[in-house]
Amino acid sequence: xxxxxxxxxxxxxxxxxxxxxxxxxxxxxxxxxxxxxxxxxxxxxxxxxxxxxxxxxxxxxxxxxxxxxxxxxxxxxxxxxxxxxxxxxxxxxxxxxxxxxxxxxxxxxxxxxxxxxxxxxxxxxxxxxxxxxxxxxxxxxxxxxxxxxxxxxxxxxxxxxxxxxxxxxxxxxxxxxxxxxxxxxxxxxxxxxxxxxxxxxxxxxxxxxxxxxxxxxxxxxxxxxxxxxxxxxxxxxxxxxxxxxxxxxxxxxxxxxxxxxxxxxxxxxxxxxxxxxxxxxxxxxxxxxxxxxxxxxxxxxxxxxxxxxxxxxxxxxxxxxxxxxxxxxxxxxxxxxxxxxxxxxxxxxxxxxxxxxxxxxxxxxxxxxx
Length: 370
Prior knowledge:
The strands form 2 sheets. A two-stranded antiparallel ribbon has the order 1-4. It has a two-stranded antiparallel ribbon with strand order 2-3. The protein is mainly α and about 375 residues long. Mean pLDDT is about 90; it is low at about 365-370. It has helices at about 1-5, 25-50, 55-65, 70-95, 100-120, 125-155, 160-180, 210-230, 230-240, 245-250, 255-280, 290-300, 305-330, 335-355; strands spanning about 10, 15-20, 360, 370. The longest helix is centred in the middle third of the chain and has 30 residues, at about 125-155.
């Protein structure tokens, strides 16, 4: 009898099953609910750790992002740069090529722009100089991205490790040229490039420094949406992402698709570097990419690789960043506290995707079964 008992096991109370589909309205409500839950948890954390009124903290976050026209434009700039890098990694991710090297690709694109500004700033007319910067940045980003793509396509190397390690190579290249071109000597930094002549600086539109950046990224968003959804190349990316064997069976050249897609991904990262150097800071440092290459992964994933939805996810993350900085300033708190709030909100937003894609099913009985 004890032998029979040992061969029996108790049926679990519940199990996790993948959902077939969740209605869009219900999925939206789940995501909205996760944000509300995150704000409630953040309120308790705020009161427990600081004693501050959480409503006042949230009002400060809104003020930090939208309080003045300058803050709004800074938010739009942050949004556009994050969105640009997110657009870059999306075709690779949709193809299931895990491009973790966007940070380095952006830096190399920015380094190419800075090199053109330094070497040709006093030799070329400004319009021709900017065209040279555009070409150089796109080529630099594309070449940096296609190196791991070629190895993946021909030798089946691990693209995650390859692209990740190339980030560090890119960072060290920027650090090296910061020493070569340092200004003033001994500073270890390049400083503002062509500060007196503004050679290679992007022109302002309507007296707004960042408007051109926003327009360019908006155009890239429309292009990427059409490219992925309606073009033949977009279809091939989706097929390769679903199954490389299926892609080969229907006659697709998988190696060609991988290399072509990574050329595009790197080229857009190069554009991001161009916009950061030529249209934003007018210099290059190892911090120019600002971690956007990694944050963009979250933006792309949360948006399900949809460029239009990425606008909203990038806006949310940019708002959290701006709001967190304002909290640290107004309340004299350690910046780590604002990062804690941001982390809690992101945890809930990402975690809710589990409930969108999976469901918990409770078993009707807990009888012992063989």
